[in-house]
Specification:
With 126 residues, the chain is an all-alpha fold. The protein has one domain. Helix content is 54%, strand content 0%. It contains seven helices and no strands. Helix 3 packs across helix 4, helix 3 crosses helix 6 and helix 4 packs across helix 6. The longest helix is centred in the C-terminal third of the chain and has 17 residues.
Length: 126
């Protein structure tokens, strides 16, 4: 199911190219910034509550290799490096996704601006 979702996200949004262009302030990174960003993306789409829950998912062999690559970051590394990523780069990615959803008529709005609120503290989902 995750591989299917990854193919969809790549086909519709071209997320792979956008994430590959991300960079942070590290001089000689051992893990690519894209690996860190996609780990957090996986945490969001899997609705995991913390970086430690994500780390336990990443430690399962072959679980999220399609997103993060073969070398998995630890929860501490994810938190430290994610704080170094320039927020304007992420806003650009989210803006592109928002624009694409509008072009695909997934978000219906007569106004030129869209606002989307995401609450990450749900205990149950439907």
């Amino acid at each position: 199911m995750m591989a299917r979702f990854c193919r969809y996200v790549q086909k519709v949004f071209g997320l792979g190219e956008q994430v590959a262009a991300l960079h942070d302030q590290r001089r000689q990174p051992q893990l690519p910034t894209a690996s860190i960003w996609t780990s957090v993306f996986a945490m969001d789409i899997l609705r995991l509550g913390s970086l430690h829950a994500l780390e336990s998912e990443l430690r399962i062999p072959n679980r999220l290799d399609a997103l993060t690559g073969p070398r998995k970051p630890s929860a501490d590394t994810i938190g430290r490096v994610y704080g170094l990523i320039d927020p304007t780069q992420q806003v650009g990615i989210l803006s592109h996704i928002n624009h694409r959803l509008g072009r695909n008529k997934a978000l219906h709005s007569a106004w030129p601006l869209r606002f989307l609120a995401v609450d990450g503290h749900e205990f149950f989902s439907q």
